[in-house]
Amino acid sequence: MSKRDEEARDLVQRLSAGKMSRRQFMTRASALGLTAGAIGSILAACGGKDDAAPATAPTEPAPTESAPGESTAPAGTVDIAGDLDHFTWEGYDLPGIIDPWLDANGVSQNVTLIGVQADVEAKLLSPAGKGVDLTSANQAFIQSYLDFGIVRPISVEEVPSLAKLFPRWQQFPYRNDDGTFNVVPWTWGSLGLTYSPERVGEVPESWEIVFDPAFKDRVVMLDDAQNNVSLAALILGFNPDELTQEQFAEVKDFLGRVMKQSKTLAPSFGDIVSLFAAGEVDLNFLGWIGTDVFIEGAETKTIVPAKNPDGSLGRSLAFCDCAMIPPDADNVPAALAFSEQLISGQIAADAAAYLAAGTTNPEVVALIDETTRALFPYDDLGAFFERVALPNGFPRESDEFVTFDETVKGWEDVKAAAL
Amino acid sequence: MSVSRRLAAVLASPLGLLLFVAIAIPGGTFLVYSFFSFDASLRRVEPGFSFDNYRLVLTESTFHTLGWNTLAIAVPATVASVVAGYALAYYLAFEARRSRTFLLALVVISMLASYLVRIYAWRTLMGERGVLNSALEAIGIIDEPLGVLLFSRLTVIVAYVNLYLPFTTLLIYASLAGVPRALRESARDLGAGRGETLRRVTLPLSGHAVLVATAFTFFLSAGDFFAPVLLGGTSSVTFGVAISDQLRSTGNYPLGAALSFVMLAAFALVYLLLRASLRAFRFLPRQVA
To answer: ipTM value of the model?
Structure first.
């Protein structure tokens, strides 16, 4: 008998003996990977007062085939009704897009907004995080969240469309060797150099343009320690996941030079859109492709320059935001079903358009509107991600490599040096 | 204890309780946190007692730089707000006649717009395609937009004066309105000019309002981190930004708390220095504050 089987049997015995509530049993059993059908059967067999959420869950096997546009979500065959406490970024609750699905399934989405990614660990590691059903994890934070023990593994049976993801998202840190997923990767985008064609003219060939005296005080940077350090590291030819202190010194020097060229630091991409629209800046180091879509009254282009300043192949950065279910989630069935919607059918396609983002499911690509689809080269994502990295994140503790906290401190040093 | 004093204590107790619950308890908790340590690998605050966070704040050159930059913004903003506020309040209290109500209404109305709206309004005014640059170009004073109007320390200072001038004006006006006209007229009758009357009569009688207005403006402008981010460009990173980074980006509450209490200690020092200076120049009666 495997360890998992032993633990499952122990759970059943504790439930039968009344040493565990039905809600506790559901949470622990889900964490062990027991299917909802099995959990429901056990609960039904044990009887007793029903103090838990509906035992049925969206863990039915995926339909063998689903036509494009049709959701593969199991909702409709299972009862997932109830509150879904969603701790996520503004817009990731998909207002207007997910509402019909929520209404049809009796799910009430209670959204609390994330300010910075670090809010997630701060909340989930505190008593205030109990009961969060679904949250958002940037790919660079997944390893840390695993280390903190705030990740509930997800099986493909629970979120069937996970089996269909592009190969890029069928590997760690998204997927484990045992086939379970840590998160549901669902929205991604690329970061690069955003420029104003009107002011810059020809497509910039190299990152060197940010140091061009003609653009002194015409550059804007996002006030984001980790992404700035990661991007600078890539441009300098370093691996941001394994950045040594010597390399970090070069990265800080590079960022300091960009800072000297910069007019301002923007607190958000929304602010950067405003700055381009107001004609305040011409270039954005660490620019977001969504700027090109959302800007009004002006035009921007976001690219990965062909060359780094040293003449080597130009590199840049991408991000992938994932749905993550904490181990203490109250309504796991609804969280799973919601996650399925994020990567399947028209809801996923509309979400991509709404966020000017990419999808992780090849089946969804055809459903995305042409403009949004054209943002990314879905035909050859492998080549794309060779130039555009998806870092796994800075270690939280390391004697060898630069840590997460050191990037924050280093970024403060860069900002202070510009004063 | 007399009946009236007991009654006063009873009446004040709800406010005292509110202040204790809303300020003393969280503030005390935060102070305790500043002596704790932070386990970076587990993102966990470890209870204990250590001055390490304070040592880091006081020895790290980055924090020194941010501290000086904070002063470079907050001191001019405070001086300008208080001096302009005093002048406006003086005019309202002693010079304005029929226009007083109208001007006071304007001062109050200027406070009604939200903080963020006023900050963004400065962008609209001072931007390269903003109202000021457009006007200067239209009347032929400049050929190209002046980029220095926005994203500089000066912009942040001007914005702070705009934000806090109404407060300093009202605080000082409330004090000046209570200065007996007879005292000022007596000084004039005894041969004092307008300047000497201001220096020897009016200022000392309104010194406590100047003290409070100065402290108020300095604390708010030095502690703010949003206006510098939105208006200040790369030259306006302040101590408040460092506190925000520690509390939000890394979750290092002990270090963030230590930074906060070092800042609070600096505020207290500024207050004491200011009070001593006002007393030294006899602008503040000894029994006040």
So the answer is: 0.77
Residue pair A180/A146 in contact (Cβ under 8 Å)? The answer is no
If asked whether residues A48 and A92 sit together in one domain, one would say no
Task: Give the least confident one: A104-118, A300-314, B81-95, B273-287.
Answer: B273-287
Q: A191 phi and psi, to 5 degrees?
A: -115, 140
Strand A134-138 to A283-288 pairing: unpaired
Residues A43 and A101 in one domain: no
Is the model more confident about A192 or about A4?
A: A192
- Strand A184-195 with A219-222, pairing: unpaired
Q: A269 and A291 in contact (C-beta within 8 Å)?
A: yes
In the stretch 139-168 of chain A, residues with CB closer than 8 A to chain B read 144, 147-148
Compute mean pLDDT per 10 residues along chain B, 289 residues long, and list them: 81 89 91 91 85 94 92 95 96 91 92 88 87 90 85 91 95 94 90 90 92 93 88 86 82 91 92 91 70
| CATH of span B68-280 | 1.10.3720.10
Between CA A68 and CA A362 the distance in angstroms is 10
Which residues in chain B have their CB less than 8 angstroms from residue A121's CB? 43, 251
In a domain, A65, yes or no: no
Residues A87 and A165 in one domain: yes
Q: Please indicate, yes or no, whether residues A335 and A221 belong to a single structural domain of this protein.
A: no
CB contact under 8 A, A264 and B232: yes
Residue A233 lies in a domain: yes
Strands A107-113 and A82-88, bridge-based pairing: parallel
Number of alpha carbons in the 13 Å side-chain half-sphere of residue B128: 18
Asked whether residue A231 falls in the same domain as residue A366, the answer is no
| CB pair distance less than 8 Å for A416 and B237 | yes
Q: Check CB contact of A115 with chain B, cutoff 8 Å.
A: yes
Total CB pairs under 8 A between chain A and B: 97
Tens-digit pLDDT profile for residues A152-173:
999 999 999 999 999 999 999 9
- What is the dihedral sign for C-alpha B126, B127, B128, B129? negative
Q: At what angle do helices A225-235 and A245-261 cross, to 10 degrees?
A: 100
Asked if A419 lies within 8 A of B237 by C-beta distance, the reply is: yes
Residue pointed to by tokens 């039905």 = A22
Nearest to A106 by CA among A124, A80, A131: A80
**Looking at the domain assignment, is residue A267 inside a domain?**
yes
Residue given tokens 């699905």 in the structure block = A101
- Band (pLDDT 50/70/90 cuts) for residue A15 is low
What residues in B contact A262, CB-CB < 8 Å? 233-234
What range does the domain containing A302 cover?
189-318+381-417
Helix or strand holding residue A134 (H, E): strand A134-138
B129/A419 Cβ within 8 A: no
| Same domain assignment for residues A226 and A299 | yes
Residue B239 neighbours by CB distance under 10 Å: 26
CB contact under 8 A, A396 and B43: yes
Q: Do A413 and B245 touch (CB under 8 A)?
A: no
Q: How far is B273 from chain A (nearest CA, A)?
A: 27
Domain boundaries, chain B: 68-280
- Domain identity same for A38 and A86: no
In a domain, A208, yes or no: yes
Q: Which residue of A has its CA nearest to B146?
A: A280
Looking at the 3D structure of chain A, how many domains does it have?
3
A413 touches chain B (CB under 8 A): yes
> Hey, what are A79's tokens?
């009862």
CB A320 within 8 A of CB A171: no
DSSP state of A164: G
Nearest to A278 among B40, B65, B129 (CB): B129
Same domain for A284 and A224, yes or no, is yes
